[in-house]
Amino acid sequence: MSEQATWLEVANRIPPSRTIVVEGRLILNNLEKYRRRLKRLQESDGDGDIGFIVNSKGGHTAAGLELFYLFSKSPVRIVGIVKGEAKSAGFMALQGCHVRLATSKSILQIHDPERFDTAPPLVHHEMTLDEYLDIHRGRFPNIKAEVEREREEVVTILAKVSKLKDIVFLEEFLKREKVMNAEEALSLGFLDGVIEGPALI
C-alpha cells in the first residue's frame, strides 16, 4: 500500500462530527469558537483523531499562532488537512497539527509577519511596515517591536517543524513569501503527506 493511500485512510477515518473547519479568514474574533470546539472534541466520548480542515487565505498572525499552540499541545491527535489553500495564519495553524496533509491541488504560503494582518489590524498586506507607520505613526507605538517578536516566533516554529533549520535562510524564505504546491511543501517538511481521493471528510 502506498504512503498516499495510507494517509488517505487516516483522513477518511475522521467523521465530520470530529472536525474543526476554518474557511476564509482566520481572525481573533473567531478564536473562542475554535477553542470551545476543540475542548468539546477532546472531552467527548468519541474515539480517534480530530480533523482540522483548512481552506484559508490567512488572517491574524496571533490567531494562527494561538491555534498552533492549542493543536500541538492537544492530548488527542490532530490531523490537519488542506483543501484548497493554507496561507499566512492558516499555514501557521496547520503546522501545529500532529499530522499535516493536503490534497494534491492545494496551495500553501507563509508570509513575512510585516505583511500579516496582525491584531489589531496593524499592517495591511499591500504595504510594508514602514509605509504603514508613516501613515499611522503614534497610534501603535509598539507595533514594530510586536512584529519583530512575531517574526522571531514564526521562524523558531518553522525551524522546529520543517526541514529548514538555518534561521537566516528561513528569514529570507519568509520575505520571499513563496507560494508552494503540495509537493513542494512536502519536500520542505511543511507537510507529512499529499493525498487525493474520494470523500476526504
Q: Which terms would index this structure?
A:
single chain; 201 residues; alpha/beta; 7 strands; 42% helix
Provide structural commentary.
- With 201 residues, this protein is α/β, with parallel strands linked by helices.
- It has one domain (3-195): 2-enoyl-CoA Hydratase, Chain A, domain 1 (Alpha-Beta Complex).
- It contains 8 helices and 7 strands.
- It has helices spanning 3-12, 31-43, 61-72, 89-95, 129-136, 143-161, 167-176, 182-187, and strands spanning 19-26, 50-59, 78-87, 99-103, 107-109, 179-181, 193-195.
- Strands 1, 2, 3, 4, 5, 6 and 7 form a 7-stranded mixed β-sheet that branches.
- Strand 3, helix 4 and strand 4 (99-103) form a beta-alpha-beta unit.
- It is globular and about 50 Å long.
Number of helices: 8
Structural class of the helix and strand makeup?
alpha/beta
From the alpha carbons, calculate the radius of gyration and give it in angstroms.
17 Å
Distance between the termini: 21 Å
- Tell me the fraction of residues in β-strands, as a range: 15-25%
How would the global form be characterised? globular
| Mean residue pLDDT | 85
Total strands: 7
In the CATH scheme, what's the topology name? 2-enoyl-CoA Hydratase, Chain A, domain 1
**Total count of domains:** 1
- Reading the helices and strands in chain order gives HEHEHEHEEHHHEHE
**Helix share of residues?**
40-55%
The CATH superfamily is known as 2-enoyl-CoA Hydratase, Chain A, domain 1
CATH architectural grouping? Alpha-Beta Complex
The biggest sheet amounts to: 7 strands, mixed
Instruction: Using the coordinates above, name the CATH class.
Output: Alpha Beta
List low-pLDDT spans. 116-126
